[in-house]
Structures are given as structure tokens and as C-alpha cells.
Design goal:
Elements (H helix, E strand, L loop, with lengths): L7 H9 E8 L16 H22 L5 E5 L4 H7 L7 E4 L5 H12 L6 E5 L8 H13 L2 E5 L5 E6 L5 H5 L9 H11 L4 E3 L9 H13 L3 H9 L10
Parallel strand pairs: 1-2, 1-4, 2-3, 5-7
Antiparallel strand pairs: 4-6, 5-6
Helix pairs in contact: 1-5
Amino acid sequence: MDRKCQDPSFEQISAVLRLTIMAKYPTPGTVKTRLTPKLTPEQAARVQTVFIRHWIRRVSSLRVALPVVFADPPEMVLPFAALLPRELFGVIEPQASGDLGERLIDATSRLQSPLPFRPFFIGVDSPDVPDATLIHAMRLVKQGTVVIGAAGDGGFWSVGLGAGVDAATLFRDIEWSSGREASQVIARAQKAGYDVRHAGMWDDVDRPDDLRRLMRRLKASRVELDRALYRSLKFLPRELQA
């Protein structure tokens, strides 16, 4: 099915926007650790691998500009590239050191040089965000200066920065993994006088119950990429397969 957005306004924003995936290399014991002990560290790392590959396929199916992938840790850029079909991604860059705020600040700086692209950041923890929600969020980058896609746990599944936004003002010294990340970034943006737009809330997958809900949604979905994701996760223990 051709899922390319035909709206001319979306074509215009996709030409100046850089869809940017921030992802951690799936080394067992370092990713998706809150899925253990329901999953082994190896199974949790496999979930991360599946999510990364799924997001690349999703973005490619939308036929927007190819994404930039920022990989963590930086020394795993080449192994990270080996995870992905070569024809389905554009650029892989190493993430900077520091907390997520410092890494987003650095990524924004690199994305905006030499041309002033507008970064639209996503993680990989919300793999079934509907296409309509994703496209709506990217459109909002053109309309507002700061676009937040909040997650149910208080973080966010996406954040977009329009023209003239100072990433350091938004992201430095945020209490990451506190459940207050989205509200703190929104408060920073409002204090700085930026227009804030909301892209819609969606679940992310951090804990076994999150994974169980995801599997339930995927099983009921009629979207082929969702169905493919469901099949890719069939290695999960039966109790997590909805």
C-alpha cells in the first residue's frame, strides 16, 4: 500500500524537516532493562532491535526525506549500521556524551549546520504511533516553534523544533526519566516565549505491561506494518502476547 502523504504542504515541510531517530544500540543488559526479569537481557535487546528496524521501515514507507539516525554509544555506529537494510536509511551519526538533553542539544546543532533544518526527534519506544498522528506532528513543526508528542509516562515520543528555537534552553538540566520530562520542557518553552503545539499522546514501551498493551493493539490492527511488527515480536513469552 502506498502510504506517501500527497498533501503539498506536507511535501514542503518534509523538505526542511529532518526526521531524527535517537536510538541505543541493542547490547543485552543495556537496553529495555525495565522489561526484565519478565524478559531475559537478550530478549529485551531483541525487542530494541525489532523496534529500530520497524521505525526505519515505517519512515521509509511514508516516503518523507530519509531519516538521520543518532546512535548511542558513539563507538557502535558501524555495528548499528549493520542492523539496518542499507537502502532504507540515510545517515547514521554518533550521539554525543552526556544525558539526553546534552545529546539532543548536540544533535540539533549538527542538524542545523550548514542549512537550518528543523529537527523532529523520535525515539523507538512508541512503534505503533498512527501514521496520521506522526504526520500531524511533523506538520505542526511548520506551524509552531516547539512541538511535543507526550508519552503516557510523562516523557515524550517526539519533539520538534521550529525555526529559531534554542535547544539548550529547552533540554539542559531536565530531570530525565523522572516522569516530568514533557512538562518541564513545555514549561521551559513557554517561559522562553516559544509557541508550543501538542502532537497528541501515545504509549511508549518500557515495562512488561506496556509491551502487553502494544501486542494487544498490534494484534487488532489492520495496518500491515503493525501486523509485521506483531509477527516480529512473536518470540516473546506467551503471557506477553496479548
